[in-house]
Each structure stands twice: as C-alpha cells, then as structure tokens.
C-alpha cells in the first residue's frame, strides 16, 4: 500500500503524541481499542529493529526500501515475532530489505494489469459474476510481497461521495452476484464508512454474497468486535471472509477469539496464502499451516504463487520446488485441507492452476 496524503498529515500532526504514548523500548504495550492500535503503528525501521533487538547493520538498506514502500506493523503482530531472529517468518513479511531495491527482469509495478479492468473509480471487474471494490486505502500492516505495493490508492479509492459510479455499475450489471471488498484492507475502515457501504450493496437486488479479503483478524484482532459482527450477521447478503495467513505462527489465542466471533455471526471463513521463499516454502510449514487453520475453524482455500511485482522478487519460489511442494502436501493432507495452488494471469477468465 502506498502512503496517502492522509497518512503523511496524520504522522506529522501526531508525531509527538506517538512518542509520548508508546515507550520505544516496551514491545508489550497494549492499546485500549483497535482504533488506538491502528493509530499507533510501527512505521520507523529503526524503531522496529530496536524493539526486536536486531542488528542495526540492517538499518541503512531498510530505510532505503522503506522509502519505496513504507513499513507498517501493528503491536499485536510484533509480539508474535521472535526477538533477535532476522530469519523469523513473520519478520520477513514486514521488514524492508535491500533486496527490494533490485529490479530483475519480469517483475513490474502492475503484474496483474488491473488498470485494464477498472470501469469506475475503485472498482475492478476481471471475472464473471463478481467485482472487487477498493473499500479502503489503509492497511494495518504492509506485506512486503503485496502485489499492490505500487497501486495508486489516492486516485482509486473513492470517498463516500464518489462511490456512486461504482455502485451504479454494479446495479446495472445484473450478472454480478458477489462483491469483494479489498484495498488496502476493508476492515481498516471505520464502522460508519463500512456499514454505509454495506447498506448500499444490500439494496442491489441481484447481489447474493459479500466477500471480505483481509489481514485484520490476524494483525489487529481487536477490530473484530461485537459492533462489526452484529452488523454482518444482520445483512441479507451471505458473508464470506477470506483471511490472508501465510504461517501458523501468525495464529494465537487472540486471533482465535476474533475468528470465533466471526463464526458466531455465521461468516464463512476461508484462507488464502502466498507461497514465499524463506517464509513458508517447505512442506512441513505448509502442512502445519493447513492443520492449524482448520483447528481455528478456517478452511484452506488458495495457495498463490507470487505475483511478479517489482520489489518482491526475493520471495519467488522456483517452479520445480512448487511442484515438489504440491506432491508432498497431497501425500500428507486430506483433500479438504489441501489448498489449491493457483496463479493469476492478466486477461485470463479465472485464476489458473499453478501445477
């Protein structure tokens, strides 16, 4: 996610407040609300290295990569990262690295060519029967492999007053049965904004489902509260939440409580992961992820091959290794715990099998 004008203004106006509220050497600091934690993200590479007691020799290149794609991390997520371990699989997903400065051939800013499928601001229509709405420009965490790390959120995330063309497009296109809320992260939006958008979608008669793609239950579990789950349960639309969990270490008791609240609200819980070198590119890790997800009531859904986005080439896994992982997982997991290995290719009518 790119830094927005609102991000810059907020950081300037709240710099002193942040310094006073969060002791820089106290990673056990606990916010009182999800809004407070979201406003107090770790956004300074030096701060992150200090809190995790990592070698400061990482700092110069981390700062350079941070300028290309800003660091964002919640305190909740931070506390699941092992101190003094530069190879921690959660750390590797959020720490800016010098490798992001490399520009290998084939890795581009818009690997899925989403600009070609935008009939209205904030709306992407690639596949039959479903559209994607950019419900928020904000993320609670910036994943270094994000395929939208270069996306122009300022021009493609409408304000409440600017949503009408997108809503009109959905209304007049009766083949659309499902709306997918994405971003950014849709659950980073305030209830007032999210509930208003949900109300508009509920008024479109041919819509059947609302799908929410989010990292929030993992990285900011306090966000999954009664106000949110009650509103989702009241909706006439069938609710599906697709979580983005890449490693079993991301799951803990607090996350489990959030997921249980969603289940109690009759929300179907699925998970999609990204195959990431040095994070989850081994059979044991992926099998443990599927088993852990199911214990938390989440069904493994997709395992995405990395989208070739500029800045993320160091996460790429070789084709022969992908094939080997698939064979080994098939031998160890029941079919319902086996995620589909897929990749997205511009202008295809659906995701395609990766193996």
Question: How would you describe this structure to a colleague?
Answer:
With 355 residues, the protein is an alpha/beta fold. It has two domains: 5-101, no CATH class; 114-353, Aldolase class I (TIM Barrel, Alpha-Beta Barrel). 35% of the residues lie in helices and 13% in strands. It contains 14 helices and nine strands. It has helices spanning 5-21, 34-39, 45-51, 59-68, 75-78, 91-94, 153-156, 164-172, 191-202, 216-219, 226-234, 253-264, 283-295, 319-332, and strands at 123-124, 130-136, 178-183, 209-214, 238-243, 268-274, 299-304, 340-343, 352-353. It has a nine-stranded mixed sheet. Strand 7, helix 14 and strand 8 form a beta-alpha-beta unit. The longest helix is centred in the first third of the chain and has 17 residues, at 5-21. The radius of gyration is 20 Å and the shape is globular.
What can be said about this structure in brief?
The chain has 355 residues and is an alpha/beta fold. The chain contains 14 helices and nine strands. It has two domains: 5-101, no CATH class; 114-353, Aldolase class I (TIM Barrel).
What key phrases describe this protein's structure?
355 residues, alpha/beta, TIM Barrel, 2 domains, 9-stranded mixed beta sheet, 9 strands, disordered N terminus
């Amino acid at each position: 996610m790119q830094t927005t004008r609102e991000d810059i203004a907020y950081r300037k106006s709240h710099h002193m407040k942040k310094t006073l509220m969060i002791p820089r050497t106290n990673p056990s600091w606990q916010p009182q609300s999800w809004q407070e934690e979201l406003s107090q993200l770790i956004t300074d590479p030096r701060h992150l290295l200090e809190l995790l007691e990592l070698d400061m020799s990482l700092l110069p290149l981390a700062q350079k990569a941070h300028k290309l794609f800003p660091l964002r991390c919640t305190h909740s997520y931070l506390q699941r990262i092992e101190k003094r371990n530069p190879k921690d699989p959660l750390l590797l997903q959020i720490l800016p690295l010098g490798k992001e400065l490399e520009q290998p051939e084939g890795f581009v800013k818009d690997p899925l060519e989403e600009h070609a499928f935008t009939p209205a601001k904030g709306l992407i229509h690639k596949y039959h029967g479903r559209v994607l709405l950019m419900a928020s420009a904000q993320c609670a965490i910036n994943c270094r492999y994000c395929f939208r790390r270069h996306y122009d959120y300022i021009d493609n995330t409408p304000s409440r007053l600017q949503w009408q063309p997108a809503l009109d497009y959905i209304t007049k296109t009766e083949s659309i049965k499902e709306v997918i809320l994405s971003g950014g992260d849709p659950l980073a939006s305030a209830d007032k904004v999210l509930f208003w958008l949900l109300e508009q979608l509920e008024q479109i008669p041919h819509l059947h489902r609302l799908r929410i793609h989010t990292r929030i239950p993992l990285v900011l579990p306090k966000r999954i509260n009664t106000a949110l789950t009650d509103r989702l349960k009241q909706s006439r639309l069938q609710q599906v939440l697709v979580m983005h969990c890449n490693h079993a270490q991301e799951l803990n008791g607090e996350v489990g409580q959030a997921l249980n609240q969603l289940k109690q609200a009759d929300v179907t819980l699925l998970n999609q992961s990204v195959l990431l070198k040095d994070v989850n590119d081994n059979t044991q890790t992926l099998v443990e992820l599927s088993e852990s997800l199911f214990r938390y009531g989440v069904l493994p859904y997709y395992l995405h091959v990395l989208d070739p986005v500029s800045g993320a080439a160091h996460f790429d896994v070789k084709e022969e290794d992908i094939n080997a992982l698939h064979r080994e997982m098939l031998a160890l997991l029941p079919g319902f715990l086996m995620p589909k290995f897929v990749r997205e290719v511009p202008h295809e009518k659906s995701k395609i099998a990766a193996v």
